[in-house]
Amino acid sequence: MTNIFQLMACETKDNPGVSVTNAAALVATQAWRQLLPQAKEGIVFIEAYVDPRHVHIAPGERFAEVTFDLDGDALHSPRWRHRERAEVERLIGGPISLPVESSS
Asked: What is the pTM assigned to this prediction?
C-alpha cells in the first residue's frame, strides 16, 4: 500500500504575505515533513487558481500539479503542469471543493 498524501493550496483574497506560487516549495516541504514518516512515498501538490472576475479571458478556475526535486529533507525547484479539473479529480481520487472566494 502506498502512502501518497494530497495537498491543495489556493490563494486567499486577503493574503498579506507571499503568494502560494512563490512559496510552493516551502509550503510543500513543511507539509511533507509534518506528514513523515507516513508520507515517505511523497505528496501530490495541487495549486488551484480561482478568480471569477476573469472568466471572460480564462476559466474561473485553473489547476496545476506541482512537482519538486528533493535535496535531503527539503523540496525545491517547483515545476507546474497545468491540469483540467477532471484530471485533478482522477489524480486525487475524488471531487474538488474550492472556496467560494479566492484571489482577486
From this structure: 0.76
Kindly list the domain boundaries of the chain, sorted by start residue: 5-92
Query: Measured between alpha carbons, how far is 30 from 56 in angstroms, rounded to an integer?
Result: 36
Cell of 2: 502506498
Quote the CA–CA distance of 53 and 42 in Å, as a whole number. 35
pLDDT of residue 51: 67
DSSP string, 72-103: TTEEEEEEEEEE-HHHHHHHHTS-----SS--
The DSSP bridge pattern shows strands 61-71 and 74-83 to be: antiparallel
Distance, CA of 78 to CA of 66 (rounded, Å): 6
